[in-house]
Every structure is written in C-alpha cells, then in structure tokens.
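Changelog-adjacent note: as of this version, every example in the card shows the full chain rather than a window. The one below runs 359 residues end to end.
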Amino acid sequence: MLLTDTQARAGAEARFDNIEYLVFQRSPLGMMGTSALVFTLTYGLYVLIAQVTQSPPFLYQNEAGEWITHQVNWIAFVLSLILTAAIAFAGSAKGRWETEVEDLIRALPDTGRTAAEDLAKGAPVSWRARYHRLFWVGFVFGILFNFLLMNTAADLLGYINSVGLWFLIVSPLLFGTGFRAGMDLSRRSREIRSVIAGHLVVDLFHLDRLSVFGRIGLRAARSWMIMAAILLLFMLDPDQLWIALPTILATVAGGVFILTSALNPVHRKICAAKAAELDRIHEEMARVRDRALAGEDAASSALAGLTDYEVWVAERPEWPLSTGLATRFSLYILLPILPIVGSYLFEKLADQFVSGGPV
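Full-length structure tokens:
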C-alpha cells in the first residue's frame, strides 16, 4: 500500500496557486482586513472619480438644499462588494479545503491519501492556460459590456469623463474573476467526484467520518449563497434587476452544483452499501429461517439478531450530513433572503421619516 501511495506521489501533477491566494497569504491584515482593504480601494476609487469628474457628483444638493446622492453610487457600492467577495472567495478557497484534509484522509482508504491531499492544493499546472484564457475572455466581455451601455461610439469620451471610467476599469476585472471562478468550480467539482468514485469505501459502522464531505459541500455552497445575497442588494434599485436576476440565478445554481457534487456521489455509495448489506442479511435470514421455525433455539436466536441488525442497517443515514450540518444548510438558504428583508425594512423606515414619523 505504501508503494502504491509513493508511486501516486511520484506521478502527481505539479500545482500552482492563484494570485488571490498569494495576496491573502502574505497580507498582514488577515482575511477580513485584506477584504476590507480591497473594498475600500475599489469603492474609494469610485468616490474619487465621482468627485473629480462631478458626473455625477457623489453628493450634491437638490433644489431644496438637501444633500442627496445618485442611484449609480449604490450600483457601484454593490459591484464593489461583489468584486471584493469574488477576490476573497478565490483567495480563501484553498484554505477552506486545507482545514478538511485530515478528516478527508480518515474517511478514505490509504490509496486515497494522495488524492485527498491534492484537493487542498492549487490547480494543476495543465489548467493554468485555461484559467488565464477564461480570465481574459471575461475581461474583454467586461469591456464590451460597458460599450453596450453607450448609445454611440461618440459617447466614449463623455463616458470616460464620468463615473463610467470606474465601470470601465472594474467591470473587466469583475467579469474576468467571475469567469475564472466558474472554471474553478467545474475543476473542484470534477476532482471531488473523482476522489469519491475512485477511493471512497463506505463502512456503515463509521458513517460519521463521511460528514467531511457534507462540510466540504456546505462551505463551498455558503460562498455562492453569500454572493447571491450580495447580488440581491440590487433589489434596492429595480432598474438593475435585468442585470442582477440572471447573475443571481447563475450564482445559486453554482452553489447547488458544488453542493450536490460532494453530497450526491457519497449518498449513492451509502445507499449501495446499505442495499448490499441488506441483501447479505436477507440471504443469511433465509438460511436460518426454516431451522428457527422448526424450533431450533440457536437458529431462533440468530434470526432475532439478524432482524435487529436489519433494522439498524435500514435506519442508517443515507446523506453525509449531521444534524448540525443540516441546520447550518437551512440557515445558508436564508442568506439570499436577508437583502430582500433589509430592503423592505429600509423602505418602511424611509417612508416613516419622509412622512414625519411613525404611522
């Protein structure tokens, strides 16, 4: 077995880390501090461009002398959150897998050790070109998307001399990161399915070890649910729903996809193991049944024991989710609902202030 594992290591493909991971690893600010810095720089650039170009200004006075802000500021705020989350998720993805390596190794036989360790490493070098290519496809798409927002080519100068300059800078980065995230999702999903199919052997007496697959799926799904929640902040600006809704649906679909990639193969293997064990029990029950019915004490005792064991096997859980994980998943589903509730409360509160007090 050791020889097999050594051979696997010798033939393992080299891997590389993405730039986001390297930045977060080397930053002295930690995950939250670095994410806050990314957001501050991104949205701060928007505020700077808005104040310099005054098209539109970040804050201005209306005819009544009240200080107000333009709705495009909110769009930029949400996009800054999305870009920050995308960079943070890309930077922390490897770390999320690293925390589960030991439990994943315990859930697999010795032949799966190398495969489990590889899951916590970066992307295979053979994927490097695809990652770069898809990023630049998204980058160009982001530029073209900005041009679609202009009525004519003559609007380019005016667009650059307004907050449109910020969108022209940020959109390519946002789409490039998003396209590459889709590639990473596909790769990680393929790898976890390969590990499960090629190495996982279900032991009905140790199903608790398989909860690691539930945690892996839920952690990945949580990131996508958080992104969907951020996207739903566009609900505050109904004019942007035509952009937000398709993206929200794609984000939720991504979360469901990575979750089922980790859970469904394990679920099928557990069901197959239970079915095989029940068949073996039934064969043994059939073998001792006649002697038990004839009054043989040993056979009767064996049949009773087999019946108890049959019930135990039939009641074994079929999903690699503990009660705590199932509860956490329910809470993750609620994440995208929070912006809708927040939007409703914000509008009610604003209406009360406008009307001069509570109604």
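Structural remarks: The chain has 14 helices and four strands.
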